[in-house]
Amino acid sequence: MLYVADTSIAGGDKPREIEVGEFSFSSHTQEGRIYCVIEFKEETERRSHKSWVWDPLSQHYRQDEDRECSFSILIESDDAKFADIWLWRSYMSDPAGIAEDMFAFPKADGTLSPALDDGGPCWESVYYEGFVGQKLPRFKLQKASGSYADVSATAIWKDGKWRVTLSRPLSTGNKDDIVFRQGTEYRISMARGLPGKIPEPAFKFRMGKIQGDDAGAIPLPSAKSHSVGEK
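-> structure tokens emitted (231 positions)
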């Protein structure tokens, strides 16, 4: 299902939320940046991921079953030949204050092979040879760098719901990022984790008027009243 959002109205309007699958989405621009606010339900914060747990029988660490919470937002260019992918993760990226910036070239059938943007990631895998503790983190968090770290993130979990705000300059100057331009149409979709195929449903929006560094809001009408059928 594809939804259309007419965002040609410029300046001052309060961004309206659009419901896309299990996600609630709204967006606006300010001082040369685009902001995307995403909300979705999650019973717990899930602030650990694939922890190491000591196995006394084998005398080594094994991977636990804990999993972090994560979602991706995919922003496709107007010609559908390039996708900017922002992957937010409650354990791996949120403490660093970013979403992992990635990209892909969608194939004709919609399949994706995401790759990291240039730069240094915000985590690295670690292993422990001998007993250090009963349960230990598998990943060491570190400072990210380069185009990989373009997307800032702030997140709050409360009452069984995540509210995540992602922001990025309208133009980063990096070849692995989409440039948000006035009057240009983009296709957005969201999914849990990192998908191997472009998710459905999705919606389109067109950037409204941008005035220098003080950009107008991007209003998003209700998706239900803008359904245009199967994609």
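Residues 1-13, 210-231 have pLDDT under 50 and may be disordered.
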